[in-house]
Model the fold of this input.
Amino acid sequence: MTAATHDSVRLRALIATAKRWDVIFVLGIIALGIGLLTFAALFLDMLIDGWSRLRPEFFTQFPSRRAGQAGILSAWVGTTLVMLVTATVAVPLGVAAGIYLEEYARKNWLTDIIEINITNLAGVPSIVYGLLALGLFVYGFGLGQSILTAGLTLALLILPVVIVATREAIRSIPANVREGSYAVGATRWQTVKDHIVPYSMPGILTGVIIGMSRAIGETAPIITIGALTFIAFLPPSPVTAEFPFLSFEWLQAPFTVMPIQMFNWTSRPDEAFHANAAAAGTILVAMTLLMNGLAIWLRFRLRKNIKW
Amino acid sequence: MRAFPGTLPTVISERLSKKFSRNLKERAIEAGLFFAAFVSVLTTAGIVYVLLKESVLFFTHVPIWDFLTDTQWTPLFDDAHFGIMVLLSGTITSSFVALAVAIPLGTTIAIYLSEFASPRAREIAKPVLELLSGVPTIVYGYFALLFVTPILQILIPSLPGFNLLAAGMVMGIMIVPYVASISEDAMRAVPMALREGSFAMGATRLQTAVRVVVPAAVSGIAAAYILGISRAIGETMILAVAAGMQPNLTFNPLEPAATITAYIVQVALGDLPHGSIGYQTIFAAGLTLMLMTLAFNLIGFYMRKRFREAY
Done:
C-alpha cells in the first residue's frame, strides 16, 4: 500500500518534470515566431528603402541609366501582357484536364501515366521549363524571345497547380449531385457543364489565383528564354484605331517583366539602383500577397458557405 | 402486365434515335478534355526531348567521364573544361545550408501546429505560412544579398559580398513553409488513439509528440525533407543574386560559388549563339539538375504515399 503510494508520488514528480519541457518548447515556439516576425520586418524595411521611389513617375518611366529616372513602365506592361497569355492558355487547359481526370478518366494505364506526369511536373524546377521553352518554343517553333513564348512557358509551369485545384474542388462535390443529374436524363457533359463546373468554381478560382501569383514572381524561366533586361519601348498596342481594332502583333514583341527588372537592379553594384529594386520588390510582394490573400479568403468563405 | 418485345412506345424510340448524335457530341467533348490532360505528358516528353537532344550533342564533344570527374568548369574559355562537379559542389553546399535551417525550423513548427496549437492559432498560422511561400524568390534573393550578407559580415568580417551561407540561409527560410506544411499533414494523419494511449500512460504533450507521433509519421516527415531538398536544388534566383556566378569547387559556405541553376542564368543573360558548345552546356547542366530533382521527387512521393496508406 505505502509502496504503491510512493510509486505514484514518484510518477507524479516525473510527469511534473516532463511538463516543464512542454513549457520550454512553447517558449521556444514563441521565440521562433518572433524570428519569423523579424523576417516580416524585412518586408517593411524593403518598403522603407523603396518608398522614395514609389511615386507615380515610377510607373510611367522606362528603365534608365540614371537610377533616379528609372521606372517600371515596360516591366509592368510586359508582366500584364505575359499574364494575359498565361491565363488564356493555362485556365482552360488546366480546368479541362482536371474535369477529364475526375469525371471521365477510366482506371487504366494511360490515366496512371497522366497522373504521374502531373505530380512529377509539379516538382520540376522552374528553370527546366525555361530550358524547354528555349529549345522548343524559341528555336524549335521559331516563336523567338517574345511575349507569346514567355506566356506559354509560364502557362505550362502553373498547369499542375490549376489541375490539382480543379480536381480537389470537383472531388468535394458529393456523388448524389451527379446521380440526381443522371437520373433526370442528363448526359455526362450536361452534368459537368450545368452542375460540376458551377459548383466547383470557387475552388477552381482559388487555384487559378495561386497559380497566377506564382507566375507573376517567376524569374528564372523567363531569363532562360533570353528575355532582355533593358527595354525602353512598349510592345505594339493590342487595341488599334482601324478595323478590326484588335492587333496581335504584341505577342511577338520583345519584353521585360517585373521580376527581371528587379533582378537587374539588384545585381547592379551602384547602390542608387537598390532603392529601385526595393520599390519593384515591394510592388511584387504586395501583388503576390494580395493574390494569395484573396485565394485564402475565397477558400475560407467557401468552407463556411457550402454545406452539402 | 404483358410485354411487347420490339414495340416500344414511339416517344422512347424517338429518344433512342437521338442517341447517336448525342453520343457523337459526348465523344468529341471527351476527346477534347482528354487532349487537355494529355498536354502534361507532352510537356514531360518535350522536356526530355529538348534536354536529351542538346545533351547528346554536348557529349559528342565532351566525354561523359570528363564531365563527371574534371575539377574545372571553364566552358567559355579557350582552355575549356567541363567538370560538372564544380557546379554541383555549389548546389550541394547551398542546399546543405538551406536544410540545416529548414529542417529544425520546419519540424518544430509542424510539431507545434499539429500537437500544441489551438485550432484558432492553427487557422492563423497556416495561411501566414502559405503567404510566406508565395513571395517571389527574386525578393528573397534581394534579402540575401542586401540584408543577410551585411549582417553576417558583422559577425564574420572576412565574409565576401557573394557567399553561399547567406543565400543558403535565406533559401532555408523560403522552404520552411513547405517542410512544415507537409510534415504537419503527416502528423495529423496519425490516429488519435495513439496519442490517447500515450497520454493515458502519463506522457506529456511533448513526450507524446516526439516519441509517438513523430515516429508514427516518420515516412511523411522524411518525404517533406526530401521534397525540401529537391526544392533547394532547383532554386535559382536566390543563388544567382546572392551567391555569385563564379564557378568554384568548394564545400565551404563562406565562399562564393556558382550552382547549376546560377550557371544557366549566367549563360542565358549573355549572348551565346544557338548551337554553340556553350549553348549546349546549359542543357547538359539542366539534364543533371532534372535527374537529381526527379530522383528526390520520386523517393519523396513514394514515401508520402506510404504514410497515407499506413492507417
